[in-house]
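ok new one. same drill as before - structure tokens go in, u give me an amino acid for every spot. 149 of them this time. try not to just spam alanines like last time pls lmao
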């Protein structure tokens, strides 16, 4: 194990992020610097591993920054969800995103094969689907039917 320290600007450059993000993580308590010399923060290998974990969890869109904090904080407050609860909720969010992306892919593939000259404006399938979306949205504006005595 090495005791080598890396300045905040070196870490930012190596990890492809702005220095302001590292300062923000420090302010939140997610990634405290190993030491400070004057106004410069320095990080050791332990902090770099923690930063790599934050990037894996948060930057890849797997969990929110707040949930990342819950997962990596050693003693989370009792009113916070457990790490397992965060993971379960994150998995469900990812499943929903995958489903939505699959539907988006299907639509784009359909438009790509639609025989009309301008599929975005002329595709019958898309126009029908959009009409249903509009009808559903406008249904919220309609008053409920009167109740019968």
């Amino acid at each position: 194990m090495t005791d080598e320290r890396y300045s905040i600007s070196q870490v930012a450059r190596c990890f492809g992020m702005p220095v302001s993000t590292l300062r923000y993580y420090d302010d939140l308590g997610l990634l405290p610097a190993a030491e400070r010399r004057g106004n410069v923060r320095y990080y050791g290998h332990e902090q770099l591993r923690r930063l790599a974990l934050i990037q894996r969890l948060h930057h890849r869109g797997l969990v929110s920054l707040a949930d990342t904090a819950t997962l990596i904080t050693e003693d989370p407050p009792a009113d916070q969800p457990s790490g397992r609860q965060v993971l379960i909720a994150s998995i469900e969010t990812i499943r929903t995103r995958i489903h939505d992306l699959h539907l988006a892919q299907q639509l784009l593939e359909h438009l790509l094969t639609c025989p009309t000259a301008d599929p975005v404006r002329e595709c019958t399938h898309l126009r029908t689907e959009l009409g249903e979306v509009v009808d559903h949205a406008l249904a919220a504006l309609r008053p409920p039917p009167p109740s019968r005595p």
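The mean pLDDT is 89. and btw Residues 2 and 45 are 8 Å apart (CA to CA).
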